[in-house]
Amino acid sequence: IGNTVLHILVLQPNKTFACRMYSLILSYDRNKEGPGSLELIPNNEGLTPFKLAGVEGNTVMFQYLMQKRKHSLWSFGPLTTVLYDLTEIDSWAEDQSFLELIVATKKREARQILDLTPVKELVSLKWNMYGRPYFCFLALFYILYMVCFTMCCVYRPLKPRTGNKTSGRDNTIYVQKMLQESYMTYEDELRLVGELITVIGAVVILILEIPDILRVGAAKYFGQTILGGPFHIIVITYACMILITMVMRLTSTTGEVVPMSFALVLGWCNVMYFARGFQMLGPFTIMIQKMIFGDLMRFCWLMAVVILGFASAFYVIFQTENPENLGQFYNYPMSLFTTFELFLTIIDGPANYDVDLPFMYSVVYFAFAIIATLLMLNLLIAMMGDTHWRVAHERDELWRAQVVATTVMLERKLPRCLWPRSGICGREYGLGDRWYLRVQERVDPNKHKMMRYTEAFKAQDRDNYDKDLEKLEINRNILDKKELSALSLSRSTSRTSSHRGWEILRRNT
């Protein structure tokens, strides 16, 4: 019951009352230390009161709980060295990491905790010492891996076509080699090494990604933008395309260019994931994700309706015409593709001035140009501009959240020998087996001195204002001119005293 009450207090809007009641309940807890403590008992979702405060973005309760956990080592003048307990904060050996919970929640208030002590210092320590070097090395390794895969695709085994053309529009001159013909020369063996590296890399990607999907859940793993959800979809699809290409190569099945081309596009697009390691480029990846999966997905439904309607109209108009004179609409699939290009203004309106075009083509194309180019494309630009404006106001928060998510990911993937535990063991200070983070805090005495001066001047101005109100009450029955003169005199007196006070403050500063 006490643990349930603690969880309820974390969710209370009255922060002062919640903190006092929290301390009152813990004062009756017999097991204040150890696994039996009320603060360490999780709820049905696996969240302790401390983790719940972080997920809900309750910064007041979080700071209150951290003040209870800190230990002061020494103080000399304005400098103070403090040890902060990293229990439930550090992601080391934690199945449900506190940092991962913060970046995975949809509440913006929770991301503000990443800028508080000691979370800010812990993330900075992990990222600067281990996260950034490993992440840059991983980015370089992935780019070299993609270069290897691209070269294997560029020099894939092809041979001249021997069969006859089926139609005048057939433009194929090379075909895919059979498996027995693909690995005969020295260049083929060199390409085989690159293909084996590519396949091994795809298998490693699946081995690393599948356990996280089973642990977190597919909806949460792929749906969180800060955690890199869309990029996880891209890299898993890329690995599947590589394996499909391998199977088609081993079985000598024609058409391997389809999964191979998809794999090339997805693999190189995944390079944008590594932009999150840089403060200048990290927020732009989130902008791209939000635009693609937010604005563009909604816009594609409207675009599909317009393209289907006008492509059908163009096909019907040119159905009776000679396709050799204007072949952009010679069949229905080609009409869809041509209309899509016209929609995005990639090509100009097709026309052949040597022959007479149907009159309805000019009418339909005029309506299409007005609706597609002038109306819908400007609508898409306005939607993307609004998304850019919203994300730009959160760029620093989003980049910090990306850094935290990347740090937690690397800490889980890398062996323990390559990523030692951060902090100081409490045995060095007689604080048990818990781990602590040493933070040096500085208290500026001039700041407190200026605050005292400011409060004094505020009180002086308040006294003068009260005296002025008393004078106005006494002289209520005097003429309007005298009231105005008295009011102006009182204001000048207040302004003079306030000016004198700020002069003293400026001189002391």
From TrEMBL:
Pfam families given in the database record: Ion_trans
InterPro entries named in the record: Ankyrin_rpt-contain_sf, Ion_trans_dom, TRPV, TRPV5, TRPV5/TRPV6
Topological type in the membrane: Multi-pass membrane protein
Chain ranges passing through the membrane: 134-158, 192-210, 231-251, 257-275, 296-318, 359-381
Annotated localization: Membrane
Keyword set, alphabetical order: ANK repeat, Membrane, Metal-binding, Phosphoprotein, Repeat, Transmembrane, Transmembrane helix
Record-level GO BP terms: calcium ion import across plasma membrane
CC terms in the record's Gene Ontology section: plasma membrane
This protein's record includes keyword Metal-binding: yes
All copies of domain Ion transport, residue ranges: 135-393
Primary residence: membrane
Gene3D superfamilies noted in UniProt: Ankyrin repeat-containing domain
GO molecular function terms attached to this record: calcium channel activity; metal ion binding
This protein's name: TRPV5 protein
Organism of this sequence: Dromas ardeola
